[in-house]
Every structure is written in C-alpha cells, then in structure tokens.
C-alpha cells in the first residue's frame, strides 16, 4: 500500500542549547531543523533543513510504501548544527492511527517529546494513494513520454529507422532546449544566481548535441529523457519562467537549470563522452535506473510548474526523490551507521564561512563549476590568494551548490584555533564518511571493510587510503560513478605546522589516484610549503591565484559595498541620497581588491552613527589601497580610551585572551581570568563589533583571522595594542592557575573532558555529564593548562602544575566514587605528561 505523507511544519520548538553544544553554535542563532522519518525503525526519508527558525515550515511531500498499516512511523527532529547523533525529540505513531487522525482534520498535530518533556508539535498529514491512482499516474507518464515526435519515421518500419528516428528525436529535443537556454546564457550577469548552472548546462548540452548529430546509434530511452527535458522547457517558457522577472521565478529557473545540468551530464556519460568507463552489464542496469529517476524528476518538475506550485516545493521534490530512492535501497542503513561512527571526524569550529553575496564571483564560480564538469586527469583545483581575498567565502558557495546538487559538496575547513587532532587520517576519514552518501555499493563496501577489520582505522595512512577509499571507489560494482563529486578543503594554510605537511602530502600524493569523477577544490594562502608540494604534481593539480587587482574583483567589491551600504541606509532610515555618490567608488579604491577590507570597513560603518563613521573613513588618508592595518587601527580607536596606558594594558590582555585561547571565552570569564574589574571586558568589547564577534554573556571570537595576524605582529600593529604572544601566553597560564585555585575552593569540578570521554571506566562518562554543572572557566582553565601551559612557562611551573593536576585527579576520582581506579589516574597523568606541547595556534 502506498501513502502520501506531508510534513508541513512544526509549532514553536522549545529548545535551548546545552552548554556542551555552545561551541558548535552561532551565538544567538535559532535552530536549523529537519525531520527524519523512520518506518519500523528503518530510516526512510529526510526533509530538507529549515534554517534559523523555531517554527519551521517544510511543506515537504513524499510517498511511502508499507506492507502493513500497523507499521510504526517515527518522526525525529534534528538540529543540523548538532549533528545526526542526537535528536531534539521525536513523535511515534502507527500508520493506521495517523490515517485515522488525519481523517477528521486534514493536517494533524503530533507531540514531539524529549524524555517526558514536550518540545513542540509537528504538523503532518498522511493519506492513502489508491492503486488505481498509482496505475493511472504511471500510464499517463508512459504514454506521454512514448509519443513519437516524428510519427512518419517510426511508422516506416525500415531497419535502422528506429535508431535514426531516436537520433532525430534526441537532436530535435536538444535543439529545443538549447534554443531556450541560449538567451538565458546570453543575459549572463543579470541572472547571476542562475548563470553558472545555465552556462554549464548549455555547454554540456551543446557538446552532447555536436557528438550525437553524427552518431548512428542512439538509445530510445535517452531520446525519451531528452524529450522530457524539452517538454519541461516548453512548459517553463509558457509559464513565463524563462524570463524570470521575479525572485521566485528565478528560483524556478535555477532548479530547472540544475536538473538540466544533471541530465546533460548523464546523457554525455551514457553516450560515452564523459566520466564513465566501459559500459558493462552492471553499468547499464544502474544507468537504466538513473535514467528512469531523471525522467521522473523532469516529469515531476514539469507537472509542478503547470500546477503553479511554489518553486520551493519543487526543489524539495527533486531532492526528496533522489534521497528516498537512495535510502530505500539501503535497508542496512542503521547497521552501517554503527560502523561509520568509528571513523574520525574533523573537529570543525563553530563558525562556518559565509556564502558569496548573490551576484559576486559569478565568473570564477562558472569557471570552477565548468572545470568540475569537464572530465580530465587533473582532479585537484588549488585556489590560492592573499589573506582576506575571499577564498573561504568562495569555497563555501561552491561546496554548498554541489551539496545541493547531491554531488557530495563536502566542505572541510581549518581554522587556527581548532583543537589538535585534525590530521591527515581525520581528513581521509571525513572524505570516506562523505562518500558513503553517494552510492549504496560504496557504503556497503566501506562498512564491510570496517566490520571485517575494525583496526583498519589505526593502520598507516597508505593502507587506509587504499582500503577505505580507493578500493570501494574502484571496485567492479562501483565503476559507475557519474561525476563530478566534489570535496572542498578550505584554508589548508591554517592547519598547525605539524599536520599541514601531512595533509598537503595526502592531497598531493594520493588524491590523483582516485577515479576522475572525484574532484577537489583546495584553498589556501600562498604558503611556500603547500606550493612546493602542489607544484610537484602539475598533472593532477591545477593552480589558480585569486587576482585581487582584476576588473571582476573590483566589480564584485563594488556590488558588495553598495549592497551593504543599502542595508545600512534601510536599517537606520537614512535619506535616499545617502551614501554620497563618491563614497562607494572611494571605498572600492581603498579596499584594493581585498574583501576583508571592505567587510571590516562596512562593519565599522554599520555600527553606531553610520554617517559620521563613513565620513571619518572617507577623510582618512590611507597610505595604500587595501591597507588593512590602518583600518584595524581605526577600528580599535573607535574607543577613545586607548590613549590611556592602564586602559590599553588591560584591553590588550582582553584581546590576547580572545586571539590566543583555543576555546572562546565570555566577557565574564576574561574578567575573572585577569582579575579585571567586573564588566571591563564587556565595556571594551561593545566598541569592537567591527572586528570581534560578541554579545553580552557570550563567547568572543575574532571576526577574521587577519585581525589576529595584525595584533600579534609588532611591525604592523601600534605598540599600545601589540600582543606579545609569548608574554601573553604566560599571563594567560598564570591567570588560569590563579582562577583554578580560587574556584576549586567552591566548586565541584570537572575532569577535563578530553581525558575522560574515552575513559574505560564503566559509567564514568555518565557521571561526568551529570556533574557538568560547575564552572566553565574551570573547565577552560584545566584544558588550557593541558593544551598550552608548558609552551609558555618554565619547567618548574609545569612540574608543579602537573603535580597539582594529579592531586585534582585523585580528588575528582573521589568525588566520582571511583577512587580505587588510581592506576587509571596515573595513566591519565602519563598521557598529560607525554602530550606534545605544540598545539599552540601561533609559532612561539
Ligand atoms: N563574494 C563575497 N560576498 C560577500 N562577502 C564576501 C565575499 N567574499 C568575501 N567576503 C567577506 O570578506 C571577508 C573575508 O573573506 P574570506 O574569509 O573568504 O577571505 P579569505 O581569503 O578566506 O581569508 P584568509 O586567507 O585570511 O582565510 C569575509 O568575512 C566575508 O564576509
């Protein structure tokens, strides 16, 4: 029996982040919610994510089939930023019961419970689809697709005529699509959000068209796929979508061009001009399945267009179709996920990069997207660029667009203050984990390897690369990989020295061995070590440096500044003739092609008194364009007290804690750490909104890594705010020690989680979680001690701290009633003693 399920929305979800989750979340953000649906505990389908909402509206439709109406449906609610391991709550109901509930009122409400607490309500609707209806749907679709476009040729019955007719049908359909796509491509930059996809789709279809024009044999099904594409375009044209005057129509057009890109790519591969290798029986069977899927997606999109359904649900239906088909095939999903949990993950910092402002970077995005879609032996694109030129933002946009197309689009990004442990194995595992989502065969093969040899995850890199990545991707059953699948590694230069070399070597020496359908985008500053290794592989690595002096960059920065100033004007209700006409041009000139300059300048202007701030900025004589140091100096001096020596000494400590600490600290914690007057850090930070992300009571973080570069470099930064890393580290360490002593007198403390989370002592983790009540500063202090102290302080202090910590371990064990585990405590202390003390973010 088939059912149609609608996950409409959720009513105000009652959720607050736990302290342990804070570092994964953006300050003040609302949750990014999605729902996973399980049928009798088997994961069946997942909605898309509705970001930043307590009352998300998914309007997500899907079909379910179930053997029995007694099957249970479980709806689990997740927050994307917290990962898939723990849900926020769930609702459970049998199919029969839900059908009954939906009879009375179309949409019904289900309580989402977390333990005994009701977190909110989920609005869903379940209806039966009758067999007749399903058969009728299928028959309609079939008859529509089988309509011959050239009846006279089909009817002629001459041998070979079917091939010829199919070729004509295919070329006709392609001509039809191309003639509609061409004007979109020509309009170009006006439709910048659509343009990269339309352009790439147009190029692929043109190459397919040129190739099939002269081919004798064309598969009948390929002609049907092309016909469905042509019909979609003709409907879109009739519905006025091709002219795309409004934002929602542009979204429709984007969905259409993305799907066209998929279809064009598929036809090209099928006809033997793309990524696939030899066509064997397995490949053909999989291709047939994929062809049916694509044809169905085209048909769905078309019928949605004609019934004028909002485009949001269109793109959702595209996604759901693909996801549901994959998931349905993977009946062992739950078992597999157990094995996959053993893979290591890159510890990602809370703050992910932003995406490019719509309309900017169109040229380079088009170029990279096209490059990804063009088969070649070179499978790594290395995008280098100076600090603040916009690499991370570009990386985020590209990975997002490939993720949305279900082409992996995995983004791995490094930031200086990341905890240790992001080494080449973690990167490899992250990719292995990512590729399990591509194809069930790959997932099975990786899980089988992990099941058969659980210790593989501790084997040398080469063995793991071959067995966990290369073998699953090149095995007979997985040759059919319709690339490109894209992995983006951002800010490679921000890995600490000891891991950067090994990760760069992994990329340079191993990635080229992967099937050509796997493409990598690596971004970094032009670091000499990275450059040397990458340039030794010219056949597999294409290098491109972001040009900050180019006309395109200037135009993009112009657009960015204009758009942000418009926002400021609207926010402060300024007059229509603000900003003055020369202002934008002058800011663009001063930015000198550096996005970070423009972003910081606009942060400054958008704070208090934008008119005055803009005037100040325009009056300032910058010695050269893109002079970030002067801009940062201006940003600091928005607080007039910097002239005062005592103030500047205290303020430098606060900035030092923000720049150097691995874990972000709140204003209160910083005050305590340095024994400052309560509220000093908060008063300082409220002036620094253009360079530090912070709000009262929340952890403070530098908005960009270049701010730390500036403050810690004596030649760039004024003496009053220069941070001497070595001296500041000692101060921080001593501050931690002092605070630790003070706090210990009052609090039940917590053992540093990094030592205990892997503990073998039964029940200990649970006890620790229960005790997670005391002082975040204490936790920070101990972790800080463990991570940093020995680098900056003399041996005696280190030794006394180690002994001190040992005492504390004993104390904690007592608190946790596991005192007899002294042996374990001693081992932990050994771990502490043997820790390599080199994980400091800045070289000392
Ligand atoms: N296309 C864009 N649209 C909107 N904002 C952008 C764009 N490019 C960059 N920015 C802004 O400029 C700032 C700097 O960009 P980004 O962090 O991407 O530079 P980067 O080259 O990665 O710097 P670094 O080498 O220091 O890591 C970002 O904070 C971002 O907000």
TrEMBL record:
<dbReference type="InterPro" id="IPR027417">
    <property type="entry name" value="P-loop_NTPase"/>
</dbReference>
<dbReference type="Pfam" id="PF00168">
    <property type="entry name" value="C2"/>
</dbReference>
<feature type="domain" description="C2">
    <location>
        <begin position="1"/>
        <end position="108"/>
    </location>
</feature>
<dbReference type="InterPro" id="IPR000008">
    <property type="entry name" value="C2_dom"/>
</dbReference>
<feature type="domain" description="NACHT">
    <location>
        <begin position="379"/>
        <end position="527"/>
    </location>
</feature>
<protein>
    <submittedName>
        <fullName>WD40 repeat-like protein</fullName>
    </submittedName>
</protein>
<dbReference type="InterPro" id="IPR007111">
    <property type="entry name" value="NACHT_NTPase"/>
</dbReference>
<dbReference type="InterPro" id="IPR056884">
    <property type="entry name" value="NPHP3-like_N"/>
</dbReference>
<dbReference type="Pfam" id="PF24883">
    <property type="entry name" value="NPHP3_N"/>
</dbReference>
<keyword id="KW-0677">Repeat</keyword>
<dbReference type="InterPro" id="IPR035892">
    <property type="entry name" value="C2_domain_sf"/>
</dbReference>
């Amino acid at each position: 029996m088939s059912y149609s399920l609608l996950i409409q929305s959720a009513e105000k979800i009652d959720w607050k982040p736990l302290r342990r989750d804070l570092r994964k979340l953006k300050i003040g953000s609302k949750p990014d919610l999605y729902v996973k649906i399980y049928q009798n505990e088997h994961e069946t389908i997942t909605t898309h994510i509705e970001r930043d909402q307590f009352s998300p509206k998914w309007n997500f439709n899907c079909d379910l089939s179930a053997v029995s109406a007694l099957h249970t449906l479980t709806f689990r609610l997740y927050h994307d930023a917290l990962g898939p391991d723990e849900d926020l709550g769930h609702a459970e109901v049998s199919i029969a019961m839900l059908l009954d509930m939906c009879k009375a009122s179309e949409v019904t409400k289900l309580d989402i419970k977390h333990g005994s607490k009701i977190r909110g309500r989920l609005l869903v609707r379940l209806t039966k689809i009758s067999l007749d209806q399903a058969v009728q749907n299928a028959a309609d679709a079939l008859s529509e697709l089988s309509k011959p476009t050239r009846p006279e040729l089909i009817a002629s019955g001459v041998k070979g005529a079917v091939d010829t007719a199919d070729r004509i049908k295919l070329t006709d359909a392609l001509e039809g699509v191309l003639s509609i796509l061409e004007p979109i491509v020509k309009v170009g930059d006006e439709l910048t959000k659509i343009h990269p996809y339309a352009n790439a789709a147009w190029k692929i279809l043109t190459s397919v068209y040129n190739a099939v024009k002269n081919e004798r044999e064309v598969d009948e099904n390929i002609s049907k796929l092309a016909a469905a594409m042509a019909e979609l375009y003709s409907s879109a044209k009739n519905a006025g979508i091709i002219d795309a005057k409004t934002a929602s129509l542009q979204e429709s057009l984007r969905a259409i061009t993305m799907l066209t890109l998929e279809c064009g790519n598929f036809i090209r591969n099928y006809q033997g001009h793309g990524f696939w290798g030899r066509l064997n029986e397995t490949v053909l069977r999989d291709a047939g399945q994929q062809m049916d899927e694509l044809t169905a997606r085209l048909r769905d999109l078309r019928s949605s267009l004609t019934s004028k359904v909002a485009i949001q649900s269109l793109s959702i239906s595209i996604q759901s179709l693909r996801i549901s088909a994959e998931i349905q095939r993977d009946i062992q999903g739950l078992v597999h996920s157990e094995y996959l949990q053993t893979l290591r993950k890159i510890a990602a910092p809370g703050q992910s990069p932003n995406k490019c402002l719509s309309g900017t970077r169109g040229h380079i995005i088009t170029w990279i997207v096209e490059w990804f879609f063009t088969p070649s032996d070179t499978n790594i694109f290395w995008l280098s660029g100076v600090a603040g030129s916009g690499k991370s933002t570009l990386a985020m946009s590209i990975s997002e667009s490939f993720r949305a197309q279900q082409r992996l689009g995995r983004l791995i990004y490094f930031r200086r203050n990341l905890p240790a442990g992001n080494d080449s194995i973690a990167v490899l595992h992250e990719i292995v984990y990512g590729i399990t989502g591509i194809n069930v065969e790959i997932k099975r093969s990786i899980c089988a390897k992990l099941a058969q040899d659980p210790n593989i995850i501790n084997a040398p890199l080469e063995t793991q690369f071959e067995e966990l990545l290369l073998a699953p991707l090149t095995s007979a059953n997985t040759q059919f990989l319709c690339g490109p699948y894209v992995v983006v590694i951002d800010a490679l230069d921000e890995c600490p020295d000891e891991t950067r070399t090994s990760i760069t070597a992994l990329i340079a020496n191993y990635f080229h061995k992967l099937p050509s359908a796997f493409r990598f985008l690596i971004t970094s500053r032009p670091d000499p070590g990275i450059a040397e290794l990458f340039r030794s592989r010219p056949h597999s690595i294409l290098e491109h440096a972001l040009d900050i002096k180019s006309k395109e960059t200037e135009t993009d920065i112009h657009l960015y500044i204009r758009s942000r100033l418009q926002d400021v004007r609207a926010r402060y209700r300024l007059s229509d003739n603000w900003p003055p006409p020369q202002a934008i041009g002058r800011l663009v000139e001063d930015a000198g092609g550096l996005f970070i300059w423009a972003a910081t300048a606009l942060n400054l202007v958008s704070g208090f008194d934008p008119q005055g701030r803009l005037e100040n900025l325009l009056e300032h004589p910058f010695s050269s364009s893109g002079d970030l140091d002067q801009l940062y100096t201006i940003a600091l001096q928005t607080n007039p007290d910097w002239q005062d020596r005592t103030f500047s000494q205290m303020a430098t400590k606060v900035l030092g804690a923000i720049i150097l600490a691995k874990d972000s600290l709140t204003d209160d914690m910083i005050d305590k750490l340095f024994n400052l007057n309560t509220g000093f850090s908060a008063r300082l930070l409220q002036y620094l909104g253009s360079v530090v992300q912070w709000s009262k009571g929340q952890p403070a973080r530098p908005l960009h890594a270049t701010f730390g570069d500036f403050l810690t470099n004596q030649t760039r930064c004024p003496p009053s705010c220069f941070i001497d890393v070595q001296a500041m580290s000692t101060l921080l360490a001593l501050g931690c020690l002092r605070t630790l002593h003070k706090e210990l007198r009052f609090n039940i403390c917590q053992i540093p989680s990094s030592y205990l989370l892997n503990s073998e002592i039964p029940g200990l983790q649970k006890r620790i979680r229960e005790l997670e009540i005391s002082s975040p500063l204490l936790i920070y202090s101990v972790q800080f001690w463990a991570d940093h102290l020995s680098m900056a302080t003399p041996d005696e202090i280190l030794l006394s701290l180690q002994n001190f910590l040992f005492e504390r371990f004993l104390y904690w064990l007592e608190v946790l009633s596991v005192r007899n585990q002294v042996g374990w405590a001693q081992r932990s202390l050994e771990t502490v003693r043997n820790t390599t003390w080199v994980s400091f973010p800045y070289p000392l």
